[in-house]
Amino acid sequence: MHSQWQGTSAPPPQFLTVDMGEVKAFHGMPILPRQGDQSGKPNEVNVQISQDNKTWVDAGNADFQNNKNPQHVFFESGFKACPIY
């Protein structure tokens, strides 16, 4: 993820927060890497989940390939690490 509109790249770590609007089970995620060139693609991703946007629990880690293909990751413990109501 590149968090700057232009200029130099922002150094890691970079964060992206997605608010689902309600508590949902989290099992994994798809990613469509940057299509323009071979730079700027995520390779090591740590996913954390929260029910209150304050307390975060590791759902899992993902290693993505450096290509333009859609990729998916499934976190076996992701939906077990944080209680789902």
Automatic annotation (TrEMBL):
Start and end of every F5/8 type C domain? 1-85
Annotated SUPFAM superfamilies: Galactose-binding domain-like (SSF49785)
State the source organism's domain of life.
Bacteria
**Which Gene3D superfamilies does the protein's record reference?**
Galactose-binding domain-like
Protein known as = Discoidin domain-containing protein
Task: Please name the source species.
Answer: Pedobacter frigidisoli
Q: Lineage of this protein's species? A: Bacteria, Pseudomonadati, Bacteroidota, Sphingobacteriia, Sphingobacteriales
